[in-house]
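dude i think i finally got it to work??
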Amino acid sequence: MSLSILFVASFWAGVQNALAGGGSFITLPALMFTGMDAQAANITSTIALFPSQLAIGWTGRRNVADLPVLSFRALIAISFAGGALGAVLLLVTPPSFFERLMPFLVLFATVVFAWGSFAPKSERAVSVNRFGAIAIQGLISIYGGYFGGGIGFLMLAALSSAGMLIRRAAATKNVLAAVMNASAVAIFVFSPQARWLQIGVSGVGAVGGGVLGALLLNRVKEKPLKIAVIVIGTALTIGLFVRAGDL
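look at this
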């Protein structure tokens, strides 16, 4: 029964990622519902969603661009290294500590998602030098390898604020997200915390949902999906704080 729910949730997550983003908000609670702890759920979710993220990045690869102060190749290298470092940090984090940290990570990701979805968009580019661009992308990549919730909006904000056109920034952040997740997945696959049965069920569901989401891209409004993610993220945050005994 729990695997059936996981498949449906992952299918929804695939649709969600293709249309509006935030698929991990769906898979994390579904995986925890199957009985695994927060750290194992995070590792399993990262691996399971990677094929659909890779497909999204590959599809938009022709629209990637350089920053005025940093090349796309440099951004790739930073994202790969940062994602790997974040993944290692997660694996050396005691599960009990990550369990306590998880509510704050989900809260942060929910706020970032809400801000990226509904905050007024600024047309003004922020002056960022080469070192600043490296530092910002490096921190986002480490966070992406460690947890990953909200990285799409974090990168979209950083790239567009640094002077990249929004369409180029969207394609570039999709590729960079796939790169940082690739380095994390390459490490996570050797972790005993990875649950391969759930990865298989969730991965198949997410790919199927991603295909459907791509077909529905011009027919479904993003706003209701984004609101649903924020509601789920808020509920998950409250539930995790209650579970941790902080509420």
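The chain has a mean pLDDT of 86.
im so relieved honestly
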